[in-house]
Each structure stands twice: as C-alpha cells, then as structure tokens.
User: What shape does this take?
Amino acid sequence: MLYAGCDWSDQWLDVAVLDRSGAVLGEARIVYAENPDPVARYREFLSSLGRRWRSTVTGIEDVNILFARTLAASGMSVVHVDPTRAARHRVALGIPKTDRADARLLASMTLAGECRPVVVDSPAAQALRVVAHAHRAAVARRVDALAALRAALMRIWPAAVSAWPAGVGGLCSAQARAVLGAAPTPRAAARLDRTSLAALLTAAGRKRTVQDEAERLRMCFFRPVMVLDPRVEEAEALRIGHLLAVLDHAVRQADGLQRELEQHYSIHPFHPLVAGVPGMGAILGGYLLAEIGDRPVERFGSGRSLAAYAGVAPVTWASGQTVRVSFRKASSTRLRSTLHALAFSMISHSPGARAYYRMRRDAGDAHATALRKLGRKIILCLYRCMASDLPYDDAVAFGYDVADSGGPYGWRAAPLDGDQIVRARDMLATPGTTVTGTARLFGVSRHTIYRHVLGRTR
Assistant: This one.
C-alpha cells in the first residue's frame, strides 16, 4: 500500500508518495493548464510506482475541492488531514513552508494515521447540501438588500418604512415593492389616488379588501411629511429604484431556491424519519439533513460526536481541583444555527420540548442556554432515529404520555421506582459491582443508573 500527500493550490497540485517504511517513492507537480484531467494524470503517476497503486491512500487538507471529490468518486481512498494539526507539525519539525515540503508532510501524517476517513454521502444528500447552502446565501442577500432599502427610505421618506407592518412582510412584501416601484418618493406617492393604488395592489397579488388597503395607504401618503428639493428627491428616487430592483432579484432567487430545497428535502432518505418533528418545516428540515447527511453512523460514530459537531455539547476543562465548563466554539455554525431555530420553533409546537425548556429555565439557565440544551436533546434523538431507522416520536423523545392528561404535559414515571433505586445503590456500594452489571440486572441503560441512582450524568 502507498501513502500520498497532496498539497493543492489554484494553479497546480504537488504530490508526494511514500511506502510503508516512509521512504519517498516519487514526487510530481500536476499543473491544471497542462493537464485537463488532473485525476487521470495522478492515477497515471501512481501506476508507475507500484503494482498495488489502486490501494493508495491520499491525504489532503481540503476534501471539498473538485480534485478530492472526483478522486473519491473514482474509487480511490481519500482521507482528510487537519490543516491546523499539519501547521503545528510543520512548526515543531522545522519544515519550511513550500508546496513540495507540505506534500511530504501530508504524506507522512497519512502514513502515521493522523487523518480522518472521508465519508461520502449519496448523490441525493450531496445535492440537498448544495441547494441548502445556496438557499442560505440567497436569504442572506435578501436580508442585506432589505436593510439597504430600509436605510435609503429612512433618509428621504421614513413614513414608508412603517406603512407596511411586519405581519404582512414589511417592505419585502410584493405589495410594498409594487407601490414603491411606482412611487419611490413622498411627492410621487401623494399623487396616487385610490384607483391607482388598488390597481397596484391587485397586480401584486392582493385579492381581499383591496379598496380598504388602498384607502389606508392613500391616507398614509397624504399626511404632511418633510420633503427635500425636487432635484435631490429625484436623485434619491433613482437610488431607491435600484435598491428595489436588487431586492426583487433577491426575493425571486430565494423563492426559487426554496422550491428546489423542498423538492430535494422530500426525496432525502431520512425525510420520512424526521418529517414528524413538531415545528420543523421543509426549510429547517432541509438545512438539518444537509449538514448531517445520510450516513451519520459512519461519519460521526455516536450521538455525542454529532452533538459536539453541532456545537451543543459543552467543553469541560479540568486541572487539579479546578473544573470549568465552556461553550464549544469549534463546531458547524450552520448546524448550530439550525438547531437553535428548531429548538425555538419546537417550544411552540411540542409539549415535551416546551416542558423541557421551562424546566431548564426554572433551574436557572438563560434563554440561549436552555435552547442549546434542548437542541442537544433533539439532535441525540434524531441520531437515534437515523441509526435505528425509526420515525421520530415526540412522546418517546421527551418521555411523556399523550393519553395521560393529569400532569401539565403528561410526564411518564421514572424508569426505576424508589425500592429499585435503593436496591441499586446497595448493590453499587458492594465492592466489585459495576454500573453495567447493575443496569443489566434491572433491564435499563447505564445512563439511567448514572442519572437516577448515582445522581449524575456520567
């Protein structure tokens, strides 16, 4: 077996290949301009070094570039080398910062096993990820365009900012954009009569109470306002028209990508499992599955690893008698923001999530902390559903009985009663008794023994 390191750049690839003993078998530079197919050139270079070149393990710092993705799709083994760890090795060993030296360093780290295998999702999951990221970017552009339009209106016509309430979409609504496109200044809006406003609202898609809305806008536009010189106002109208065109384009892009996102979300392999999560629509569901993929067991290995990747698992720092728990910053910001929004939405749709949130707030947690802990519970439940191919059940996830209406949310009884807890404590007090053996005796999990018998999570 051969071990290769690939240092990539915008113009070429530097490759170094080692054998099992660490000896350098060959080095090459693949220039993009001279090789239209770098993968074919790389496989040709490997074939001249050994008979078992197909089993070469290639280490690369960025596995999302086209070369790494195409190489993995061709059947070659590709592993990810952490760039931060590689930089630390380079400094510790005193290796100069050159492309050729970096390729050798990556190859040696791949040989030493200081890498992580790349788990490739199915084409459907990869397509969902691309569309989800594109939709996120389109929504961000729409927010920026709306903020720019609002700032421009505040400079010349503050009354237009509050003319359309947020409940109907504010300035981003089709009606507001249609009216502002026809009358971007106070003088132009004051010249609009009820008939013209009704025609604009009808063209924008309004079907009910068109005359009432037209009368409301006419009365709003007829109020005395501060005006500028007509020439300055005309120049401001040009800028507002340009910002409206940018906002229209951003809205159309976001709406089109949202339809594509819903379509890709509906054909994802895990869509039937998570479709029953209360408060999770197509957008949040698409964002969530785009970051998790369709092979979470092979990629993460456990629910705790997935929670750490999502940024909802705390980091514990311990030194001597000092123990400090801090927020995990090294995580996926996209998945963390999605879980934050999902937890906030589930409070209004899931009785179990609402009760769990109130329990954490009553215990002294802040709003963001309670949402983060709720998000951790949600991601652990979803990982369990994906690993066991079971649909999501809110009653099982939060431990309440839907048929029981006695309590506020029908919480189910603890898995161990008082007598069983006393017996378990006596057993654990006996030397030689383990938590695993006690859990097997009572037919519960180890976490149940830690939590209900010992009074701690682990």
Notes: The longest strand covers residues 24-31. Confidence is low (pLDDT under 50) at residues 405-411. The beta strands are 3-8, 12-18, 24-31, 57-60, 77-80, 116-117, 315-319, 322-326.
